[in-house]
Amino acid sequence: MEKLVGIFVNKNLLRWQAESMLAIEKESYKIILFVLPAVKKKSDKWLDKLFFLEQKILKSPNKYLAIVLDNDEPKRETYSLQKANDVLLLPLNFKNFEYLISLASIEDEILINISTELPPTILQLATSIGGEIEENIVQSYKNGETVIDIDLHQFEAGIKTKIYTTCNSIEAGLLLRTVNSILAKCSLLIQRFLNGGSNINNLILDKRTSSTLNYKTKKRNLLSSFFYHLFDKVYYKRQWILLYQFTDNPEISGINSYSTILPPKGKFWADFFPIFYKNEHYIFFEELEYKNHKGYLSYLKLKDGVVEGPYKVIEEKHHLSFPNIIELNGELYMIPETIAAKSIQLWKCENFPDKWVFEKNLIENISAVDTVIEKIDNKWWLFCTEKPLPNASGHEELCIYFSDNPITGSWKPHPKNPVLSDARMGRNAGKIENINNKLIRYGQFSGDTYGRALTKSEIILISETEYKEEFKEVIFPDVKKGFHNFHTFNYTKGLAVSDALRRIRRF
Questions:
Q1: For residue 137, what are the contacts with CB-CB under 8 A and spacing of at least 6?
Q2: Mean pLDDT across the stretch 276-287?
Q3: Rounded mean pLDDT of the chain?
Q4: How many Å apart are CA 420 and CA 445, to the nearest integer?
Q5: Are strands 77-80 and 29-36 parallel, antiparallel or unpaired?
Q6: Of the candidates 368, 266, 297, 284, which has an alpha carbon nearest to the alpha carbon of residue 326?
Q7: Which tens digit of pLDDT belongs to each residue from 129-176?
Q8: Which of 176, 177, 356, 439 is the S-S candidate for 459 at Cβ 3.0 to 4.6 Å?
Q9: Would you tell me how many other CB atoms lie within 10 Å of the CB of residue 375?
């Protein structure tokens, strides 16, 4: 028997909704459409001007807000309704439907009422305040919010329950890109749930700790925030620098007091990974020259605060960063970020520290950044952050893979991937650390801007079927010291390192 789903849509269907339906059909569901009248959008000349300027000047995409034409859509069995409650009058056997799905904005009270009258579970994506998702993103932007939750709710026998959750970045000065990115992710969420995924219990946030994540800016005026972003981009150059401290008790809470080492004016240094080799400290990192905007990998030698280097190690045709180094069977390997090559690569050290050779692709045909691997309970785990669609954010979707052998074995995806969909900690900021028998994962808070701050979480549960972590703390940079962002933290053998972003006047 066919798996049937009924989907409520408005006549002025948006691209994200159309792609959501295509994704649902990939899960072998047949769609019956219930078409409601077109939504009359409120005219906002300032918003229209902002979207026009951002698209023309910054080339921000506008794919998922576009209205889909009828001839662009596959032909489906369709029923026209004047209001959602009219579905109760249709001569259909709703016992044959597995779900009713609302891609239109329908009030909770109406969905609760329908769910008490009809047997299928009802699903709807919404923000915490309901209404049109894109309008709520715009309002949250104006209010100075730096993240927004988009959740999937189910209505069953008159009861509403949250069953899937995402926390999405609201980028300062980039409202069109923000809206487009969030709607791109929304096109995937119902398919994930239908495919067996649920992340509702994967992140533990108690009231005391979660309040520290509520980072807000001042209320934003649409056009002035855009022009401020343009001015800031033109007038200031952004330079990542090295922070370090020799210590036996590293805590991210002390990062703002670390010593600094500055790169040359024409470069930035980021993604620092220290290694202690033959009683000496080395720091591997991404080095980027502003003139060509392509990262390569280098290292410094650090002894008693005296720096030797930098020395270039690996340069490819594509961008390289995040040089995570691990030791396996007495050999040193590196897993750099190679998203531009659509793979997660493994490099082997032939002569430390200078000679590294490509060994193999650990995973192919993947858009992933900032990979770390760790052996946990006799199994190897790979943590990375994936970019699920070209227009979606690459800072939010934490995915994990497991293998019995990190070099020769195959890497299997976790069935709940992405195990976290959260702009506040979904992107790795360094290695997994075992501290006092607790597995600590550092993440990047990327609300407002990429790599705004560092987060610390404890992995509570990890298995081939489950994942759970508990948020512990977030550390924001001290602007008075010239620090505006943090986005990595690592420690080895008495040396803790991080990176900070500073803004330098161009003129």
A1: 127, 148, 170, 175, 178, 179, 182
A2: 95
A3: 94
A4: 13
A5: parallel
A6: 284
A7: 888 999 999 999 999 999 999 999 999 999 999 999 999 999 999 999
A8: 439
A9: 13
Question: What are the residue boundaries of the structural domains of the chain, listed by start?
Answer: 3-200, 235-505
* HEC profile of 427-438: EECCCCEEECCE
Question: Cα–Cα distance between 24 and 9 in angstroms, integer?
Answer: 14
> What is the three-class DSSP state of 294?
coil
CA distance linking residue 4 with residue 120, whole number of Å: 10
Cβ contact 367:387 at 8 Å = yes
CA-closest candidate to residue 194, choices 62, 323, 20, 39? 20
Q: What is the pLDDT of residues 376-418, one digit of tens each?
A: 999 999 999 999 999 999 999 999 999 999 998 899 999 999 9
The residues, ordered by sequence, that sit 6+ positions from 368 with a Cβ below 8 Å of its Cβ are 339, 344, 384, 385, 386, 387, 399
Rounded-to-10 torsion of CA 10, 15, 17, 22: 120
* 449 three-state secondary structure: coil
Q: Which amino acid is at 311?
A: Y
**What are the CA-CA distances from residue 231 to residues 72, 235, 447 (Å)?**
40, 6, 21
Answer yes or no: are the C-beta atoms of 191 and 27 closer than 8 Å: yes
- CA-CA distance, 355 to 351, in Å (whole number)? 5
Q: What pLDDT sits at residue 457?
A: 97
Q: Nearest-CA neighbor of 374 among 403, 347, 399, 398?
A: 403
3-state secondary structure 153-208: EEEECCEEEEEEEEEEECECCCHHHHHHHHHHHHHHHHHHHHCCCCCCCCEECCHH
| Main-chain phi, psi angles of 108, to 5 degrees | -55, -40
Question: What are the phi and psi torsion angles at 247 (to 5°)?
Answer: -160, 155
CB 348 within 8 A of CB 332: yes
* Contact partners, residue 69, CB within 8 Å, separation at least 6: none
Parallel/antiparallel/unpaired status of strands 147-156 and 467-475? unpaired
Q: Please tell me the distance from the alpha carbon of residue 103 to that of residue 106, in angstroms, as a whole number.
A: 9
pLDDT in tens, 203-225: 999 877 788 898 899 999 999 99
| Cα distance between residue 108 and residue 45, in whole Å | 30
Res. 188 pLDDT band, cuts 50 70 90: very high
Q: Say which DSSP state 141 is in.
A: H
For residues 351 and 4, give the distance between their C-alpha atoms in angstroms, rounded to a whole number.
60
- Rg of the chain taking only CA atoms, in angstroms: 24
Domain 235-505: what homologous superfamily? Answer: Glycosyl hydrolase domain; family 43 (2.115.10.20)
pLDDT of residue 1: 62
In whole angstroms, what is the distance from residue 257 CA to residue 48 CA?
44
Please give the Cα distance from 120 to 341 (Å, whole number): 44
